User: Fold GNAT family N-acetyltransferase from Dechloromonas agitata.
Amino acid sequence: MERSFIARGRALSSADSLAVCATDFTQPQHAAAWLELLDHYARDPMGGGTGLSDYAQANLVRELANLPSFHGALAFSGNQAVGLINCFAGFSTFAAKPLLNVHDIVVHASRRGQGIGQALLAWAEQRAGELGCCKLTLEVLSNNTRAMAAYQQAGYVPYVLDPAAGHALLMQKTLPEETA
Assistant:
């Protein structure tokens, strides 16, 4: 379903209207735009600065299209894709309810500061409601102050169970690639 959003408290002009719709990888325009935007993010210092690997570029669309837990959207200004959000369904064991994790949010560098990120976060919040989720989660690099401000504007706060225990940190362990 396509939705129109208001950016920064003002309606965009008709030449600049923003539409956010669920990513449909069966549409070649969606698949190509999604891959281009994700690579744009990967080339940014906050995305690692190197771009997507050849393997990722060749396999991501097919893999995500077949992954039931994937929920994503693209933001279009006219016919141009200007942003995306990738979310994955998870589960809160403490609440005994589903949750939705915002894994990636991308706004093209030339379009930042125009409310596109807020529109994508609003889409994710609506989708989480449709899925019966108890909350949305996301991770952000500690030096990505612009993104943190946008998330706080949308109502996100650091994850804390007890202030004496501190806030949660995201950790990872990279596994060796299969050699089959």
